[in-house]
Amino acid sequence: MSAVNQKLLVLGDEPQQVDLDHCVHCGLCLNACPTYRELGLEMDSPRGRIYQMTQVNEGKMEINDEYVGHIELCLACRACETACPSGVEYGKLVEAARSQIAAQRPHSAFKRFLYERLLLSPTLLTIAGYGAWLGQVTGLQALARNSGLLKFISPKLHQIEVFAPPSQPPFFFSKVGKTYPAIGEQKHRVAFLAGCIANVSFARMNEATVRVLQRNGCEVVIPGEQGCCGALHVHAGLRDLGRQQAKQNIIAVAGQGYDAVITNAAGCGSVLKEYPELFVGDAEWEPRAKEFSDNLKDVSEFLASIDFNRNFGEMRVKTTYQDSCHLLHGQKVKDAPRTLLKAIPGLDFRELPLSEICCGSAGVYNIEHTEMSLDLLQNKMRMADSTGAEIIVTANPGCMIQLQAGAKLYGRNQRVLHVVELLDEAYQKAES
Predict the structure, then answer these.
(1) What residue ranges in 215-273 does DSSP mark as E strands?
(2) Is 268 exposed, middle or buried (0-12, 13-18, 19+ CB in 10 A)?
(3) Of 163, 180, 206, which one is at a domain's C-terminal end?
(4) Residue 364, domain extent
């Protein structure tokens, strides 16, 4: 075994046999798995991938192109965890497998720049954000798309352009480090983790989150020392970078006496709640990570747990809700968003068939595995269209980008909103 892999084994960053052994190969995960549903291939099912991980662990299989392909095609949506009667922690296993792969097969220069520089630098994100904004407001982005120039330059770039996140100046970075008082009586004091790309591409969503929390009696602190949560790093197998970001965020909120630490991004929240898994056996950081994760709440989870402000204006609109995988399957939060939405007077809430199946976003999956992502998105929009909903609500920025693309490509140009954005509109309507 190489020195790198020996280090991985000590740190627990490769699949552990005790976790692999929890799988009894019953197959109840198969129908829950998006890639298996699409392809019908055993090796692209959770059971099949676990079998391959075991073969690698036992030295019976090399980390070759075929193995990497099957592991990378997984969306890590964790729907199999919800379906599994044996409690297999598949998300933990696939992330460990990717860490094992990354140790032997370093990422490309572009990915290293993305993970090691761009996501960790507010300055670089701001520069990139203004560059994208100029393309939007000058019409250059639309021109490149509609003229066919983008397709001429790169068919792949033309295909993924629909997934380009929006740029929303003024960016939310200007709010980081500030405190916003409760509206009315203060009942809670919370910290809000604003993310990284969300500060640029979902600045309005972050602002809506703060307003909704204020209207629910929260003093909202946006810690200045916070940074990227490390979710994309952990999902890509870059656990050392994930630990670096975890430490930064743990320090940012430590000892401040917050009633809760809030996130509005389901994908981020899943990793934030699982910070202790990055520090297993670390006498200093594991308990600190545990304290942090115990206080971490998705914004919908937090609001539904308190006597939330029901002073909403009437919203006569047909609405459906798409479960974000890492909220439903990763964090096991299903009812909270629905409870909040159903409290809005006049709202015609319609359940989305197969809401628990991934929309195909999965971080950067729609960029790396675009064909599979589009197939899943088309299926998702077929279900959304069947509800007749005018608004599709979800709980994760990545899902929002995916569903906005879906509404253009396969849907009826439905509005796509975060839960807190619709709540914010309902509160504002009550005051108008």
Answers:
(1) 218-221, 260-263
(2) buried
(3) 163
(4) 311-431
